[in-house]
Amino acid sequence: MVLLLAELFAFTDTESKTMTEEKKPLMIQIDDLVREMTPEEEAAHEALIADSPTLPSAE
Amino acid sequence: MTYPVFASGDVLNASDMNGVGLWLVKSQTVGTGVGSVAVTDAFTADYDSYKVIYDGGVGSTFITIAMQLGASTASYNMSLPYVTYGAAAAAGTSVLNATSFALMGAGDTSYAGVDVDVLSPNLARFTRVQGAYIANNESGSYSGIHKVATAYTGFTLIISGGSVTGGTIRVYGYRK
């Protein structure tokens, strides 16, 4: 029984990776169409917000 | 008919209608959990200046909202003098030749909003913006200029720090 529990809670490297929370894809809306951003759109989005200053409300 | 109050059945006189100063040009409902919202066909030759208001939505966490004109990703400049609530003195921030009009709006899990006037976006002139920045801990007066003399028909609100859900982006045109 103890051995079975040990096996139950012993994760392999692969399993532990799948247990981590996956990053949600960013969504883009164009007029009424809402869909996931493509990797290229997500990179462009990150570039657009990269030079935004930070104000106290964000801290 | 007594302008600007109209009664049911009144004739719409040209003189009265031509005196209406602000027209709703476009109303765009915002979806769920979006990181950017592109609003197309908002700016036309019918108007030179516009008011853009986004309200009624919420952020996924504290977020800020920037604006991009068309597909232009350069030459945005803005300044934002602000006062932290309870502080005696003002502070400020700005960007020079940035990728968007940063910090045009803000939001949190209880609100999200933008309130700006946009001048000459559909003309081959520099577009200027002015409005109010209102956030949890501070508010200020927003203004900026996009130094590209190109006419644009639409804009994108870009969410930084999270996403927004719901609410409506309304674009009003100031009568020429």
Please characterize this protein's 3D structure:
- The complex is a heterodimer of chains A (59) and B (176).
- Chain A is 44% helix and 14% strand.
- Chain A has 59 residues and is of the alpha+beta class.
- In chain A, strands 1-2 form a two-stranded antiparallel ribbon.
- In chain A, a hairpin with a 2-residue loop joins strand 1 (27-30) and strand 2.
- Chain B is globular.
- With 176 residues, chain B is mainly β.
- In chain B, strands 1, 2, 3, 5, 6, 7, 8, 9, 10, 11, 12 and 14 form a twelve-stranded antiparallel β-sheet that branches. In chain B, strands 4-13 form a two-stranded antiparallel ribbon.
- The chains are: A alpha+beta (59), B mainly beta (176).
- The interface between A and B is medium-sized, with 23 and 39 residues.
Largest sheet of chain A: 2 strands, antiparallel
Order of helices and strands of chain B: HEEEEEEEEEEEEEE
Q: In the CATH classification, which architecture of chain B applies?
A: Sandwich
Q: What name is given to the CATH topology of chain B?
A: Jelly Rolls
The whole-number mean of residue pLDDT values of chain A reads 75
What is the molecular shape of chain A? elongated
Please identify the structural class of chain B as seen in this structure: mainly beta
CATH class of chain B: Mainly Beta
Order of helices and strands of chain A: HHEEH
* Count of runs of 4 or more consecutive helical residues of chain B: 1
